[in-house]
Amino acid sequence: xxxxxxxxxxxxSGKSTYCSxxxxxxxxxxxxxxxxxxxxxxxxxxxxxxVDIRELIHLDxxxxxxxxxxxxxxxxxxxxxxxxxxxxxxxxxxxxxxxDYILFDCPGQIELYTHLSVMRKxxxxxxxxxxxxxxVFLIDSQFMVDGAKFLSGTMAALSVMVNLELPHVxxxxxxxxxxxxxxxxxxxxxxxxxxxxxxDMRNAHSKWHxxxxxxxxxxxxxxxxxxxxxxxxxxxxxxxSIENILITIxxxxxxxxxxxxxxxxxxxxNDDNVNCD
Length: 277
Prior knowledge:
The structure is a single chain. The protein has 277 residues and is α/β, with parallel strands linked by helices. 50% of the residues lie in helices and 13% in strands. The protein contains twelve helices and seven strands. It has helices at residues 15-28, 59-64, 72-85, 87-94, 111-114, 118-128, 147-164, 180-187, 194-203, 207-225, 239-252, 265-276, and strands at 2-8, 34-37, 51-52, 101-105, 131-140, 168-173, 231-233. Strands 3-2-4-1-5-6-7 form a seven-stranded parallel β-sheet, with helices on both faces. Helix 3 packs parallel to helix 6 (118-128), helix 7 (147-164) crosses helix 9 (194-203) and helix 9 (194-203) runs antiparallel to helix 10 (207-225). It starts with a strand and ends with a helix.
């Protein structure tokens, strides 16, 4: 069995930083985690990729082609479709090693995950190559500190969950950049309570709330009653925070559960003593 995190989220949510953080944390724990860059528009990152889509196609290739004439969004979709058409290349680059643990650092175009089918096809390829996959949806915590934005972010996460149909972990990034006031406000939302969200939106004198209060309340209650979305805060400067996220994901994809149980030295000695008796 092989293991993978599909790291997705809006542009600027910290996907590449998350990947490099997990790689460093794993390395410190004497554990090997690789990263595959699936963003054809990436300019730089702090990890050495196992596979880089830019070696196959770069966003600039699609945008500068005189016949295609793609813009940034259309070019990104074209690049991922090109990757699908060259899946043999990706399979060869990945190799076939049991117990691989790979992070797939994905583009920041949210449409790829919410309603287009290209990322779902990538998932199907990986599953066919014996990967257990967890989607890690990142969203910047700084954009989630009021009721309306939190509800919007929650709906985006839910849309990704429905489209990709995979085990799913939502992570609030850049927690280390929040002020104490913002952190306290966000803490109220980590266990979604529609009444808290509604109160905040009411206090903000939102015109949307005034007109669609019942709709907002209904959405909040659906999320709460069915436990559809939960967010995990991540502070990359806190090793315990990083470890908690990694343990959560490892449990979901059952990483390590197939490993053989190792007998400690003193257990073997005790067994010998029992046999001697």
